[in-house]
Amino acid sequence: MSDSFDVIVIGGGPGGYVAAIRAAQNDMNAACIDKWVNKDGSQAFGGTCLNAGCIPSKALLESSELYHRAQCEFDKHGIRLESIAMDIATMQKRKTGIVTQLTSGIEMLFKANKVTGLKGIGRFLGDGQVEYTSHDGEKRMLSATHVVLATGSEPVELPMMPFDGDSIVDSWGALDFESVPERIAVIGAGVIGLELGSVWQRLGSSVTIIEAMDDFLFMADRQLARDAMRQFKRQGLDIRLGAMVTGAQKGDSGVVLSYDDAKGTQELTVDKVIVAVGRRPYSEGLLADGCGIETDEKGFISVDRECRTGVENVWAIGDVVRGPMLAHKSSEEGVMVADLMAGEVAEVNYNVIPSIIYTAPEMAWVGKTEEELKTAGIRYKVGSFSFAANGRAKAMEQASGMVKMIASEEDDSILGVHILGPMAGELIGEMVLGMEFSASAEDIQRTIHAHPTLSEALHEAALAVDGRAIHAMNK
Ligand SMILES: Cc1cc2nc3c(=O)[nH]c(=O)nc-3n(C[C@H](O)[C@H](O)[C@H](O)COP(=O)(O)OP(=O)(O)OC[C@H]3O[C@@H](n4cnc5c(N)ncnc54)[C@H](O)[C@@H]3O)c2cc1C
Asked: Tens of pLDDT along 225-248?
């Protein structure tokens, strides 16, 4: 194997592996170094997303949602079950199988695209030089015209309750429970906390979510966030806002958490604590002294809009740089930098990055919220439509939530779309495409949406923007 490449990517998550494949498609000789090691000692490309994030969490959300629906919904369809039981070992085996299929798929894609996949640690030394240390400690000096830093992020640990891999765990640990804990506390009511809390609550745990902020899902549309919280509470999630955790004591009866809220100091005893208070950029051991790469006060590698670091031909993408920590944002940055290196025109439209929470109902949004538009002094009009009036949602027995579309008062362009309801994560795709192509609410109004589909709710919300909804009273 040659030690010289056109591109070396350090980090093989959805940012890094996509950048390497796209660079190879652009006729560049690319290598991708990744150091991920699973708990069973296996090494795999795919980063947090495939190994310990997006994919395993969605596998468990699906299993637990089916179990919940079989218990609570099937009888409405006339399906009578004699008995129902959840086999956690089988559920976990299925999850691991999906993860393994997808991560080994990356190696096949590397082969097909002639990307050199290297398992081990990469360290950027400066001047196009990368030190590669294999998992058995062998070192090699590699060089490249371009270097992409894509080393991702890691969970934030709370100093008063360090992870112990057993009763106090991070999100990865929470994906691996071998039985259903009786009592769980989730610290943090963000996307990850809500998804993991939902999984175990549906499987039978009593789940308390403790959130320091007074606002629930502060980044989402206020109306939909309130509605979501009502629905999650009705499902049995005990969400406590304005509650600041102060300590954790491990004892015979479990972990005793203390937290302060408006009423004073409170205690809660649980079997497992899932700490989901956020993630921070990860660049440990990545940058040799004097290599010229700068990080900001939070540890993010500093980049411009095109993901260029201050050092020529060195790029950084994904969770390790500014912007939302999302797999699809990482991947798009990977594509952009690989195209820019090849001399093509490329950009990421940071205004239309969709956000999704895979709870039931799902929540998804793109663009601005009403609150953001008010603060910016932008005049807008709003149309909304409830899934209660959507035939497909009714047939699915999932007719809760709504679509809210926000369009510019000035030129009717869509400024934001917010969905709480069934398959919101799939529905938002149409709106992302629409916004990418600068669609107006009228464009959506005049687009045929098949009947009966959930997407008709988008159509009706667009019509409602101008007071023309057909299947709802217009204000
Ligand atoms: C529980 C959970 C659920 C999530 N669900 C979603 C979701 O549904 N949708 C979504 O969009 N996002 C989701 N995310 C976030 C998503 O996983 C991240 O945004 C995404 O993985 C970031 O991609 P990345 O390539 O930047 O970094 P990562 O995926 O973190 O990959 C970085 C890789 O670099 C490797 N690395 C680090 N340092 C070095 C080094 N020096 N040498 C070699 N390799 C190195 C790491 O081992 C890792 O494999 C979730 C995250 C979690 C934790």
From this structure: 999 999 999 999 999 999 999 999
Q: Is a pLDDT exceeding 90 seen at residue 148? A: yes
How far is Cα 148 from Cα 293, in angstroms, rounded to an integer?
A: 12
For 143, phi then psi, to 5°, come to -135, 155
**What atom in ligand 1 is closest to the CA of residue 54?**
5
**Ligand 1 geometric centre to CA of 165 (Å):** 19
In the chain, the largest separation of any two C-alpha atoms, in whole Å, equals 70
Q: Which of 58, 151, 198 to mutate to test the pocket of ligand 1 (most atoms within 8 A of CB)?
A: 151
Please enumerate in sequence order all residues whose Cβ is within 8 A of that of 274, keeping only pairs 6 or more positions apart, or say none: 169, 170, 171, 173, 174, 184, 185, 186, 187, 193, 196, 197
- Name the residues annotated as catalytic: 451
Q: Which of 10, 22, 48 to mutate to test the pocket of ligand 1 (most atoms within 8 A of CB)?
A: 48
- The average pLDDT across 420-438 equals 98
* Bridge partners, 269 (sequence order): 256
Atom from ligand 1 closest to the CA of residue 175: 1
Nearest C-alpha neighbor of 22 from the set 322, 344, 351, 350: 344
Instruction: Order across the sheet with 244-251: list the strands.
Output: 244-251, 254-261, 264-270
Cα separation, 152 vs 475, whole angstroms: 46
Using the 8-state DSSP alphabet, how is residue 389 labeled? G
User: 70 CB contacts (<8 Å, ≥6 apart)?
Assistant: 81, 84
Question: How wide is the angle at C-alpha 474 spanned by C-alphas 472 and 475, nearest 5°?
Answer: 140
Place of tokens 């296996």: 42
CA distance 144 to 32: 12
Strands 206-210 and 238-240: parallel
Q: Which residues contact 244 (CB under 8 A, 6 or more apart)?
A: 212, 259, 260, 261
- Alpha carbon of 155 to ligand 1 centroid (Å): 10
In angstroms, what is the span from residue 330 Cα to ligand 1's centroid? 9
Global pTM value = 0.97
Separation of CA 37 and ligand 1 centre (Å): 13
What is the total residue count of the chain?
475
What would the pLDDT profile of 296-346 be if each residue is shown by its tens digit? 999 999 999 999 999 999 999 999 999 999 999 999 999 999 999 999 999
Specify the ligand 1 atom closest to the Cα of 358. 8
C-alpha distance across the termini of the chain, in Å: 68
Ligand 1 environment, Cβ below 6 A: 10-16, 33-36, 47-49, 53-54, 57, 121-122, 150-153, 171, 192, 282, 285-286, 318-319, 325-328, 330
CA–centroid distance, 47 to ligand 1, in Å, is 5
